[in-house]
Amino acid sequence: MAEAGFEKVRKRMLTRAQTIMESLALETRGIISVQPPKDLLGYIYAQRFLQGALAARSVDDARESPTDPESTVADQFLLEYVHACLAATPAPTDPVFDEAAVARLRDLSEALRAAAISYAVASSRATEDGLFGAATPEVEAWARSGWVLLRGHRYPVLEEEFYAYVLGPHDDVLREVYGAGSAEIAAGFQAAVTASIAGQGMAAETLDRSVQAAEAAVGGEDRPYGTGEGEPARDHAEAVREASLAFQDMVRGGICNVSRHSRLPATLLADLACCRGEDIEFFAVGALAGTPYRTLPARKKPLIDLDAAFYAVDPCSFRDAGYRALLCQLLKRRPVTSVKVVENAGMDWQPSVMRRRLLQ
Prior knowledge:
- Strand 2 (303-306) and strand 3 form a beta hairpin.
- The chain is mostly helical.
- 62% of the residues lie in helices and 2% in strands.
- It is built from 16 helices and three strands.
- Helix 7 (159-167) runs antiparallel to helix 9 and helix 9 crosses helix 11.
- Residues 61-66 and 347-360 have low confidence and may be disordered.
């Protein structure tokens, strides 16, 4: 009797968690899809930068990291949804940034993540007939919740070492297809990740130098820039250009622009990027639409094409999906070399079933 009552409660909790997830996912998509994407990315990353700067002021030991781990987890969960919504929705005409709506995204994504954890627990039905016997429900709950909580617990620092190792066996075909070898591609991924980590700090320093240079250019006189003898913008064109790019990095998501911060071939970046509205599966009508239990587009293609430039919304996606996505594109572009590519990748790339499908 008690067991039947527990099962009834579990099913009710399961239905409620799924309904909440699907509703929150649609609301999140409704906000993200109508924003100017670069302004949206700039806002999210600027908030992270400001939080870090404010936290640093309260840290007595300058060597202590001010980063809040929970904040990082929340931000990366949200960033994957930004990528998903951009990949699943065509670009709107003349979008206008709505700060009030965007400010709600953090709370929506946190509520969505909490509902996903509730779903992980409720969907793990008590049974002794599963693969792990009586422990099956616990294993299922840990597996599902682990999939959701994975976000934020990745540290994209040593991308060059990783990619130089795993792409080394494919050096010949990479040069044939993209005109760049494993070492160059690995260095490009590292440059993109480094920009996302240190780019805002470097941009802030560049802007500070620009302000000082502009003040020196007018000789400390109390007059508007661009008046009097000499035009600072005209006389210091390169400095103005650097300041403009730094501004993009600070407030318009420029640190995510892989096209600018790396020397990776455009063809390779295009192969790893979703176009706006390309993905039709993540939000497709059906059970768990738009929830973390469907494959997020970033897990298939880690970049997004914005105005003919390729952006890494979440730099951790390079490690999560970049390797598999790159090998899949190699197989599409050079199917005659598929056997060699898959054999070089080894068993760590795909399960044996996927290997057989790729070779068919």
